[in-house]
Amino acid sequence: MKRITVAVLLLISFFSCKKETPNTPGPATDIPEWTLFNTHNSPLPDDQINALAIDKQDVKWIGTSKGLIRWQGDEWKIFNSSNSPLPSDYVQSLAVEDNSTLWVGTTEGLVRLTGNDWQVYTTANSPLTHKGILCIAHDAQRKITYIGTEGSIIKIGADNHWDIVLENDNPVLSLAVDRDGSLWAGQFNFFAFIGRIGKYENGQWSGFNLATAGYPSSFPYSLAIDKNNKPVVALSGTSVRTVVHVNGNTLEEIPYSSAAGGVKVLFAEGDKIWLAGDRLSMLGSRDHPSFSIPDTDSPIQTIAVDSKGNKWLGTLYNGVVRYHSKE
């Protein structure tokens, strides 16, 4: 498993402080279209942003390789393994519930943070089968949280009952829950070098290998559910870079801007699905505009949207970027 952990980290690639963030607008100031927050101009401890989550109060949670950050108004709080129960400084995944409970996936276990109450789950004190938590999906309607690890998927109910619904030692790269409560999962077998899309419904799994569907050596990096309740998957690999709808056992490619570049992360916002990698764009047409972040060529690893529609982008090596559309 150590080899798989290293491969996943390569491929997927606290202190309290309060200070004014540069370019943070006051009540009478126009919000700039692009605002960059990094280690040079903000309290961020690291410029590698692995995960973002925003709750209903617009509190921003940022997962880095050097800890977890809570950004509320002008106040930044940095949690790490030295000043909190966080089991590892390397935060890989985040998910937030409607009640602002935060789920944190690290390289050494899982955290459920409710207010100031930290519940830490490891392979030693819980049913976790693998210590590395790669992705998390929360089903708000049914109050179920799904945990994707380096080789399994675990279902946690509102009563804190745990079920291991899949264990096959293939890293889980992406998870999404559709409106019917079905779970969709993207996995990759590093030994066979084959990706797979799975569907968990009524206690049963179905799915198919991406190579069989015509997409060899493809990593299903991101999953989202569109307005028609269809799963959308971002695929990248040695010879593949595309976005597809899952329609039964077939995959239908979705057009997107030809200038978009890399394909890494999807985010559903109402009727829209945003795509990010080298640039930020929207699915649906090759004529859609594609936005490049000014002053950086860093790839985008994660997206979150606040209540005002601002897009928050976590980059690989240049911190967090806020995109405020002028339209």
What does this structure look like?
With about 325 residues, the protein is mainly beta. Helix content is about 5%, strand content about 50%. Strands 1-6-5-4-3 form a five-stranded antiparallel sheet, with no helix packed on it. Strands 2-29-28-27 form a four-stranded antiparallel sheet, with no helix packed on it. Strands 7-8-9-10 form a four-stranded antiparallel sheet, with no helix packed on it. Strand 12 (about 145-150) and strand 13 (about 150-155) form a beta hairpin. The termini are far apart.
Considering DSSP H and I runs of 4 or more, what fraction of the residues is helical? under 10%
Average predicted confidence as pLDDT: 90
Query: Helix-strand pattern, N to C?
Result: HEEEEEEEEEEEEEEEEEEEEEEEEEEEEE
Number of strands: 29
Shape designation = globular
Query: How large is the share of residues in beta strands?
Result: over 45%
Biggest sheet: strand arrangement? 1-6-5-4-3
Helical segment count? 1
Radius of gyration in whole Å, from Cα? 19 Å
The CA-CA distance between the termini, in Å, is 48 Å
* Main beta sheet strand tally, sense and closure: 5 strands, antiparallel
* Helix/sheet category: mainly beta
Structure characteristics:
327 residues; mainly beta
